[in-house]
Amino acid sequence: MANHFLETTKGQLIISCQALADEPLHSSFIMARMAKAAYEAGASAIRANSVVDVQAIMDTVPLPVIGLDKVDYPDAPIYITPTLKEMRGIAATGAAVVACDVTGRPRPNGEQLETIVATMRAEYPETLLMADTASLADVEESNRLGFDLVGTTMYGYTPATVGCNIADNDFDYLKKVLALSKVPVIAEGKIDSPEKAAAVLKLGCHSVVVGSSITRPQLIAKHYVDAIQVK
């Protein structure tokens, strides 16, 4: 399974099909249809949120899935597959990859990421683990813990990186991630044009994830509305 995912996605586009509870397309049926559209467009894999969405998508398209589960806990700032419970839930679907927050911030219930990783390796040895990181320190921690993939997912989405964009300074941050990571890097986060997607692959990323600029129509439409309203 691991080799299949890596071979299938190398140098290719992964499309994120996600809609949160307060978004107009929130529905496992709709996300499965979105995944079908992505498949027909040539996507190599899908990134999806929640057990029900992952299962619906896997029932609809013959593509590997990067699964995650966004859950808010009152005692922790992270929300991407934050505890062992969510990690197990996504892995149990048969998703090729389970992604989780690796930003050095506290996890719910005092859980430790090192323990979570060790448990997942024992219980789901065929499942790849992807670290959603925001800094070079996070990449170093991912190396230490033995994650299979490193994503730049959280760069620009943590208090320390808010306002940052992966394309800033000619992709300077991404180049440093590529030099530091011991495993394939998946570029993700604010990649909002075909040109950016092509650029990160040219720099050496294993693959690229694009989400909002393809699968969140309310955000896509707003770009047009805002442009028209400019005087």
UniProtKB/TrEMBL annotation:
InterPro entries in UniProt: Aldolase_TIM, NanE, RibuloseP-bd_barrel
Pfam family, one: NanE
Keywords: Carbohydrate metabolism, Isomerase
Listed name of the protein: Putative N-acetylmannosamine-6-phosphate 2-epimerase
Gene Ontology cellular component annotations, sorted alphabetically: cytosol
Role summary: Converts N-acetylmannosamine-6-phosphate (ManNAc-6-P) to N-acetylglucosamine-6-phosphate (GlcNAc-6-P).
Organism: Latilactobacillus sakei (Lactobacillus sakei)
Reaction(s) catalysed by this chain's protein: an N-acyl-D-glucosamine 6-phosphate = an N-acyl-D-mannosamine 6-phosphate
E.C. number: 5.1.3.9
Pathway, per record: Amino-sugar metabolism; N-acetylneuraminate degradation; D-fructose 6-phosphate from N-acetylneuraminate: step 3/5
KW Isomerase (keyword) present: yes
Example of a GO MF term: N-acylglucosamine-6-phosphate 2-epimerase activity
One GO BP annotation of this record: N-acetylmannosamine catabolic process
Family, per entry: Belongs to the NanE family.
